[in-house]
Amino acid sequence: MAVPARIPVSASARVSNVRTSIAALFALGVLVAMPLALASDLGDVGTLDQAAVSNLPRFVEANRQVVAFKTGLDKQFTARMKAAHSQADQQRIITEFRGRLQDRQRALLGPLFGRAQTAIASVSSSKNLSVIVDKSIVIFGGQDITKAVIDLMQSPGPIAAPVSTPPPSEIGFVDNDQIDAIPKLKTANDDFLRFNEQQKRIAAQKMSKAKTDAERQQVLRDYQKTVSDRQDQQLKPLADQTKSAIADIGKKKNLVLVIDKGHLIYGGTDITPDVQNAFK
Asked: Within 10 Å of residue 217's Cβ, how many Cβ atoms?
């Protein structure tokens, strides 16, 4: 049995690197803007530079400790895997060590994330902001609260949580992972993934028989066109349907913007269940 030298990432993380999903296709622009949205409509939107927050000394030190812990854990992991007698033993060891690493991450980073979330909520409440998004997706507009959040995080003592919850927001969001899990979309995604893997194998066989660079380039072009055509035929209509559903729901809820949940930090109106219902 092959023995991995490091604690492997989850299977879902590996697949996500190669998977072309419906959500990824419709989210090309990160957001869906309602046709009549005006800059003045977004006055209650704040932005946060998450990279700046993650570079705070406490986060840097916590991440250093996580890396050091994982380095030591990898050595134990390799030794245990070498002594494993079956694939079932290997799987149990992987699960055990992955859990130990996640527990350590939660212990070191959990309190810092909690403090950051409280700081963000407190600053947002004091500035009457209903939603905070990642600064990396904003080209113009929004109120940058990065400095205020960092100052509050670095202040001594606990941070008092705001009394009120975020007010209703005209900024909506969707959870792309849940969108991809909609049965109709998941079936299409899975079918396309199988087709892509099949075409890879066919292309690899042709590539092994190709004798010149020109022939190899032609094999590659043929593979790319075949997969692209299948994507346009099978996934693009569903991506368009998803985008249309999001836009319709956004209009009905008087939203001025809908973004991917991955770019949302605080607040917002979740329309994921509405999108799921649109496919029932």
From this structure: 11
Contact 159, 122 (CB under 8 A): yes
Contact assessment for residue 271 and residue 258, using Cβ atoms and an 8 Å cutoff: yes
Per the listing, tokens 């070191």 go with 108
- Burial label, 256 (beta-carbon count in 10 A; 0-12, 13-18, 19+): buried
**pLDDT at residue 40 is higher than 50:** no
Who's near 276: CB < 8 A, 6+ residues apart? 178, 179, 182
pLDDT band at 37 (very low <50, low <70, confident <90, very high): very low
Segment holding 133, helix H or strand E: strand 131-134
- Would you place residue 25 in the very low, low, confident or very high pLDDT band (cuts 50, 70, 90)? low
Fold of the CATH domain 19-36+169-280: Protein Binding, DinI Protein; Chain A (3.30.910)
Contact 48, 117 (CB under 8 A): no
Residue 261 DSSP one-character state? G
Retrieve residue 186's tokens: 């998941």
For 48-98, the pLDDT digits (tens) are: 999 999 999 999 999 999 999 999 999 999 999 999 889 999 999 999 999
For residues 238 and 189, what is the distance between their CA atoms, to the nearest angstrom?
Answer: 10
Q: Are 254 and 36 a contacting pair, CB within 8 Å?
A: no
Task: Please name the residue that has the structure tokens 């879902």.
Answer: 12
Angle at alpha carbon of residue 52, lines to 49 and 57, rounded to 5°:
150
Pick the range with the lowest mean pLDDT from 4-13, 82-91, 238-247: 4-13
Question: How many Cβ atoms from other residues are within 10 Å of residue 218's Cβ?
Answer: 13
